[in-house]
Amino acid sequence: MEKESTDYNVKLDVFEGPLDLLLYLIKKEEVDIYDIPIERICTQYSEYLKLMRMLDLNIAGEFLVMSATLMLIKSRMLLPEEERQALEEDEEDPRLDLVRQLVEYKKFKDAAGFLEELEESQHNVFFPDDDNVVLGKDPDLSLRDVSIFDLLSSFSEILKRSEKEDLTEIFAERYTVADKVDFLMQEVVRKGRKQSLHGLFKGMKSRSEMVCTFLAILELIRLKQIRAAQEPGDFTDIVILKAEEEEDPVEEMTLEDVLEEAKHES
After folding, report:
1. Where are the alpha helices (DSSP H) in the chain?
2. Measured CA distances, 239 to 55, 193, 236, 253 (Å)
3. Which architecture does CATH list for 136-266?
4. Is the pTM value of this prediction over 0.85?
């Protein structure tokens, strides 16, 4: 897939690592973590890496190492039954080490999630002698924050849908991430409008415009100006909304602030 030219380099922190992506795919594909269909998961993993490269995101080395590991396991699993059995007499199932890593990592991830829930439940609990307690806005419990992989998955579907509609880039307009950052700052941050992710891309006929819009979303999430959330359920659309205010609210940034931030990091 040809890389888009955006004249703007979004430096996205690695929100999650390769084990997170594998756990996400295992859950998404509804497969048994102890009996991973390597060929299917390897194909899905490679598609995500291709999309990340197309978006020019900084892919950490461990993502590539995991890709190589999956390819090695896949090649072993595709050997004829006789050859595989001969190898397994001396070596264990090549998937076992990966399964052990995933199970161990999932234990820590679940424990971290449990502690985070405890912290949130205690957030508005105060002792009787506390004075001048200021309560923040009640959180929208109907929405849960989504992962970077949820966003990539939805964006991949949007791109595939546009390809099916045979939308060719024949227009002379030049789109930039900065333009889309400005648009999202106006519509979501300042006006407080909740936007459907699929709705944001409705009517776009240029792949360049789609890529710029998606990169602008990632940049503003990184800067904690907006958040991506979803109602519980497997088929609900992701929504983009203004980031919730915290105890020490993040100062609202202007477009100039965003560009200056990116300049310092480049």
Report:
1. 18-29, 38-54, 61-77, 81-90, 96-121, 148-164, 177-184, 197-200, 207-222, 255-265
2. 21, 10, 9, 21
3. Orthogonal Bundle (1.10)
4. no
